[in-house]
Every structure is written in C-alpha cells, then in structure tokens.
Q: What sequence folds into this?
C-alpha cells in the first residue's frame, strides 16, 4: 500500500488548507484512513480518522475546525482545515490502518505552517 499526500503549505492564522491523501496498491476494504501530525519536539498525535463505515474521530483540539472525509471509490481521504491556528503547525502524515491485521501504512509527511 502506498499513500500519496498533498496540500500542505503556509497560511496565516484564521486561514484554511485542504489536505488530500490517495492510497494505492492492495487495499483491504475494511480500513481506517486518517491524519496524524507531529510538531517539533512533540509526539505524533491523531488529528482525525475516518473509517470505511463512515465513522469519524477527531482530536479535541481540532473539533469544529477540521473536517475529514473520504471517497472510497478513489481510496482518498481529505482533511479540510479551517480557522487554522499557529499551534496547528506541524508535519501532517496520512495513515491507513487495516482493521483485520492492525497494520499501519504511512505516507510521507506534508508540512503545514500557520503564521500568526
């Protein structure tokens, strides 16, 4: 499984960005796709995840500002980030978790920088 992420960049506080991540390869239908982020000096943390059953899970810090969605036909997950804050600055990683095996796949990170 390969994950190709795009959409990071530099934005001012209060602005918006949209991340996309397309999965390719042998993808088991029961999976969760989502986004994690890692800021300098901090551990990688879950931002949002979207199960193949449509369930969603968000970090408390992004609830009401970020929206995750997915297109199962395209094996693509999106993260719409609104009202961005400087503390959202991090490298964002796309993740796919196979629910039957628990195996994680990761994309290369994409930098999101929010200036104050």
A:
């Amino acid at each position: 499984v390969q994950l190709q992420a795009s959409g990071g960049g530099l934005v001012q506080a209060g602005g918006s960005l949209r991340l996309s991540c397309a999965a390719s390869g042998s993808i088991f239908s029961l999976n969760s796709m989502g986004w994690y982020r890692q800021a300098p000096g901090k551990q990688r943390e879950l931002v949002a995840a979207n199960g193949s059953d449509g369930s969603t899970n968000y970090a408390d810090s992004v609830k009401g500002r970020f929206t995750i969605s997915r297109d199962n036909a395209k094996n693509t997950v999106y993260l719409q980030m609104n009202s961005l804050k400087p503390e959202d600055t991090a490298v964002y990683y796309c993740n796919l978790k196979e629910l039957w095996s628990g195996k994680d796949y990761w994309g290369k990170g994409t930098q999101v920088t929010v200036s104050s």
Observations:
- The radius of gyration is 13 Å.
- The mean pLDDT is 95.
- DSSP finds no helices and eleven strands in the chain.
